[in-house]
Every structure is written in C-alpha cells, then in structure tokens.
Specification:
Blueprint: H1 3-41, H2 48-64, H3 66-71, H4 79-82, H5 87-122, H6 136-140, H7 142-166
Helix pairs in contact: 1-2, 1-7, 5-7
Length: 169
Amino acid sequence: MSYIERTVYFIDSINDWVGRAISWLLVVMVLNVFLVVVLRYVFSFGAIWMQELYVWSHAIVFLMGAGYTLLHKGHVRIDLIYRSASNKYKSLIDLLGSVFFALPVIYVIFIKSLPMVERSWKVLEKSAEAGGLPGLFLFKTVLLVFPLLFGIQFISLALKSIYYLFYEK
C-alpha cells in the first residue's frame, strides 16, 4: 500500500468513524424534541436549556458530519458536466475544486472562527437566556473541529484524484 493510499485510508477512517458516532446524536435530538413538546404542551412546562440543546445538537450533526457526507459523496454538486464526464475529468474537477476552492474557504472559516471560540473559552460563555445552557463555549468549539474534519476529507479527495490521475493505469 502506497503512502497516498495509507493517508487516504487514515483520513477516510476518521471521518467515517466520526460520522457514524455523530449519527447517534440524531436519536438524542429526536428524544429531546419529543420531550420539549410533551413537557410544553401537555404539562405546560418549558425548559430553555432543552430547546437550546436541540438547536446546538442540530448544528453539531451538520458540522461534524460534513466530512462523512463528503466521503460518501452526499453533498450536492452541479451535475451538468460532471455526470457525463470521464473518470479522469471527474478526478481533475475534484482535485482543482479541492485545492483552489474548498481548502481556501475552509481555511478562512477556521481563521475567522478562531477568535470567537477563543473569546468564548476565555469567559466560559454560557447562554444569554435565563435557564439556558451553561457550557456554550463547548458547543462553539465545534466551529473549529468542522474545518479540520472537512478540510482533511478534501485533502483525501485531492489525494484520491492525484492517485487516479497519475498512478492509476
């Protein structure tokens, strides 16, 4: 197994594991929303922290699952050209898109998120709502994990494309 293949396997394994693990959060979210509805409309009891929890859980699923979705080709793409293109052309599009579009955008997301997450940790940010979530800074940390997981998956895609374009016979 070549260095490229081992690297791709390692990255793909990380995002596959994270995606499968984070999918269980969907079950927790459904139960949480069910409880919020029952408590509010049956017992006239509302808990702000529970409402915030399903909003943040939803964000975590999307952010942490982005790399998994990319790995399994679940993201939307414009198929007008890509659908009928040869595998070599698809690999070229994937390589150029990863290197010149996705990775720079992901870098900007990381750089712009970093100061906000740092501030959140410095003050141990909590919800502005009375009775809201106490550890908001923990949830905001996902804003830094997202570009890392998504970025390494784009690196994997670029490496797969390079391998296919230059080493595959």
